[in-house]
Design brief:
By secondary structure, the protein is mainly α. It is 34% helix and 0% strand. The chain has helices at residues 3-17, 32-35, 51-54, 56-59. The longest helix is centred in the first third of the chain and has 15 residues, at 3-17. It is globular.
Length: 80
Amino acid sequence: MKKSALLLATVIMSASILPAHAKGDRPAPPSFEELDINGDGELSKDELKGPLLDGFDKFDTDGNDTLSKSELPEPPRPKR
C-alpha cells in the first residue's frame, strides 16, 4: 500500500472514532424526564448538577425547593 493511501486510511479511521464533542458537536442536554430520577415530576437539588444546580434558587420561582418543567430555563443554543 502506498504511503499516501495508508495515511488517508489512518485519517479516516481516526476521524470516525473521535467522540462527538471532539468534532465540535455537543450532545443534546438531558430531557426533564431523564433528570427526574425519582419520577415525581419535580427536580430536587439531589437530582441536578452543573448550571441547573448552580442557578437552582433563581430558577425556583415558586420557592418550593423543587423545579417543575415550567421553571426550567431554555437550554443554551449551540455556538456556530
